[in-house]
Amino acid sequence: xxxxxxxxxxIATSAIIAATPxxxxxxxxxxxxxxxxxxxxxxxxxxxxxxxxxxxxxxxPYEEYNTTKKYIEAGEKAAASLSSSKRLSVQxxxxxxxxxxKRAQAYIDAITxxxxxxxxxxxxxxxISSGNLDDIETAYHVASEEYRxxxxxxxxxxxxSTRDGIRNSVKPTFEHLIQSIRYDVxxxxxxxxxxxxxxxxxxxxxxxxxxxxxxxxxxxxxxxxFHSKLVNNYEAAQDAIPMLPxxxxxxxxxxxxxxxxxAMDHNVNHLEPGQFIIPGExxxxxxxxxxxxSIKLSTSELESATDYTLRWKGHSVQFTTPSVEDTSGISLTxxxxxxxxxxxxxxxxxxxxxxxxxxxNGRVKINLAQPNGEATTAIITSFNGQVNTxxxxxxxxxxxxxxxxxxxxxxxxxxxxxxxxxxxxxxxxTSKKAAITYFHQLQPNAGEYNLKLENxxxxxxxxxxxxxxxKYKWDMNDLFFIHGQIVSVDEFVAALTEGDMLTIGYxxxxxxxxxxxxxxxxxxxxxxxxxxxxxxxVTFDGSYYEISGTAEPGNKVKVYRNGAYVGMITVDKEGNWxxxxxxxxxxxxxxxxxxxxGPGQDGIDGTGSVDQANAxxxxxxxxxxxxxxxxxxxxxxxxxxxLDFQFINPSFNHTFKTKISGTITIxxxxxxxxxxxxxxxxxxxxxxxxxVSRDDNFSFDASVFVITSTSGIVNQDQLEYSVKASxxxxxxxxxxxx
Length: 738
Prior knowledge:
alpha+beta, elongated
């Protein structure tokens, strides 16, 4: 009924308007009629844009809009010649008409926007139908950006019901369609960005993008229209990234975390530490992180503020260990090694401080030994000015300023080497190793000498050689020859190499002229060495190890394990070789021998080789056959009690690492446990020093104790103690004497 009434009103008003043609003369003489015409036209316009009228949210009321605007403009123009009061009256009469024009403009703009949104919706739908993710992404972005502009026009329509009518005709359809591909587009964008970053070798950033894609694929699996296609694209992008080590981060002195370019395959559950190499160090454990994107390596003790290289599968990354504050309270003046004669004296200077930085005046201990730990014949000759009769160990007080000056010399003129250990005898008993001094005996007799430089140190920068423990010095006053032809000292020094034969007319005093003649100039091959493992005998618990070393570039190296041929490799131009990951025989010693062959040389089991190098890997767990508990207080487990371990594989010479501190969890046989902190006592004994935690009602004096786990308990090669591999499953035997 309401629609019919509206329709009749619009016809009657239109007849009035039609009876009043718009002419300039009429406008000038009949302002009131123009105002009435504008008001009537605006009424028609009002109903045309109202849901209560005949608005259908599709038709744009251009005729009604334009007619109303024309009457408003004509009325304002005609009123311009009237008095101010009448002109204001006309303006007031036209206010409502102008409001309807403004609302009509918003209504028309909204319908225009709705038409554009319908086109956007159609374009998105066509892209979705194509199934092409690139086209879908493009259509999504174009439509979303344009929609944000057009949707603002929908919100300007007057009247809630009219505004909702226009909105609901287009908005829900578009937004539902866009929402249905929102997560598909997001995942597709991250995958494409990852692919581009991978091409640019930006693997860290690529991995981050794939992580985001995986997150959306997992969290919104049911919100994807193209889930299977996106999963395939994700897996393809992930497969395209090579498995590389990106960077390494040291964590403390025994741990390095290696970041990977992508997650490792799920079929990899165990990583052999023998495939990782840090030259000069031992790697005993490799543990994959929960996200499978990094590997935590347990290493031998790393030096602070030192550059290292980590190698894995033909790739390498560098890392630098952080500086560690020196809390030893021992400062050494000179850390450079010295090369002296047996008649010389080496002077060492150290300064000692307390924890607060004040001078330490307590007792200090000096101990002498060779760098390899073997006995030296060098002796201490003085300590802070006090003469010593000659010993290799001496204790005394630092002076009032915390200084210690001591001198060392070779005993009885014998050639030797020495590296003093300097220790504070305070509560902490910290220590440091000083620089090495090499004492060589100077040739005491003039004469002619025929020498072969076989395993002979050549100190070109210091102008001497050492043959059979005897030192021969040259100076600028001497004459130099190669095969009898005189040469400069620089040419002579450059030609001097291991394996050469010399004839020396040797004089003792620098003012006298010595003659040096290379009669057999041999360029010796660089010796073959095994650098990994870093020690000639190392304990290790793993299935294989990457055997590598150095030799003469271009030569061949053949490697045998316990007499069985392993493989042959050509030494690269930098002098490095590796035979890769070699399987280890379990629970026995694996002795490796590397033989070097020059060009055209070959042989079996070392026959015809230039030289050889050896290394032994003692494969097997660091575990025990028995553990004896010494109840020092006779009241059950308590502080100061000790545990003696009998290790398996006695020939492996397992010992606890010096000064280790770790934890042991002990069960009382009734399911209750206590975790204790233990410290190093000696090579096979640990002492309980503290309680970390305990279960209620733990039986401290139980008849049976069982070790269930340990942390930080390692042997001399940083190999972790294995409860699982131990006999008696970690059962502790009480000392029967208690």
